[in-house]
């Protein structure tokens, strides 16, 4: 599994300096995860403004060199993050963005390709599974170099929702979702633990209800969280930016981690030619391995439904 990478420049390019891109830059700066961060946007003024705003706080909080740049800055990056594209409005689904954002992605990837020499490419823009697959196809990089945030944010929301239900801190809850970052996400209930104890066993011991209706409600709360935030404030950006820090840290600072992110499957669970989330080892070079764990029969059924849903959208862009 080790690929013999050495610590690079710890340089990150973020393409798309909107709410998501600039919040990622801000979060990476606060946590001192990168040495150099370049913000790129077709609205150069926007990138300049966001970079200047974040830079002004850096002397007190971080050491990263943060500036607005252009695609030539992607040449020596260890990580290129793509957050350019339209966000969904209230009432829209992520797949409603596909046509417009695949076109924007083509612009972005063509520009990156002119300068790309090395590094991982991380997709955030939606629909992230579709864009991850197309970026991977167009860039033609080795397996795992192109991946998407996928279900990492959904998994984080899932852990929060469960922790609130059992009345414990998120630190003791482990759980995740696989499949699509979207409507057909699949909670892997069979693996949820609280302090290392299977959640059903824990709930029975402390007399908290644990049944199908409770699971359905928690799953729905997780699935609808993005929609609820968009209804209330028109966008989501803090949650995803926090999740990206874990991935960037794994890549830039060689702190390998496991998370449910999206990457093109190469026969895992018998599936290929589509990008979806499964638990994956992430380190320098991106997704180093996708873990083929065993799920309950209904979890497999949900996963295969997600495969079909994402494939149906992908077919429009073949
Ligand atoms: N994966 C996730 O979990 C997740 C979470 C939140 C948002 N998102 C997605 O992230 C994307 C960005 O959201 P946002 O809130 O930052 O939107 P935003 O409108 O605030 O910003 C988008 C930015 O992209 C730029 N842009 C558009 N076309 C471009 C091009 N061709 N080249 C360079 N830059 C270009 C725009 O100028 C703008 O600054 C959306 O697609 C949204 O759905 C994903």
3D structure, described in words:
With 318 residues, the protein is an alpha/beta fold. The protein has a domain at 11-150: 3-Layer(aba) Sandwich (Rossmann fold), CATH 3.40.50. The protein has helices at residues 19-30, 44-55, 58-61, 98-113, 128-139, 152-166, 199-206, 212-233, 238-252, 297-314, and strands at 11-15, 36-40, 65-68, 79-82, 120-123, 146-148, 173-174, 177-179, 185-187, 193-194, 197-198, 257-266, 272-283, 286-290. The strands form 4 sheets. The protein has a 6-stranded parallel beta sheet with strand order 3-2-1-4-5-6, sandwiched between helices. A hairpin with a 2-residue loop joins strand 10 and strand 11. Nicotinamide-adenine-dinucleotide is lined by residues 15-21, 41-43, 46, 83-88, 97, 101, 104, 107-108, 124-126, 128, 149, 153, 181, 235-237, 240.
Q: Architecture of the domain at 11-150, CATH level 2?
A: 3-Layer(aba) Sandwich
At the first level of CATH, what is the class of the domain at 11-150?
Answer: Alpha Beta
Enumerate the strands of the largest sheet in spatial order, edge to edge or round the barrel. 3-2-1-4-5-6
Distance between the termini: 32 Å
- Which ligands accompany this protein? nicotinamide-adenine-dinucleotide
Oligomeric state: single chain
Helix content estimate: 40-55%
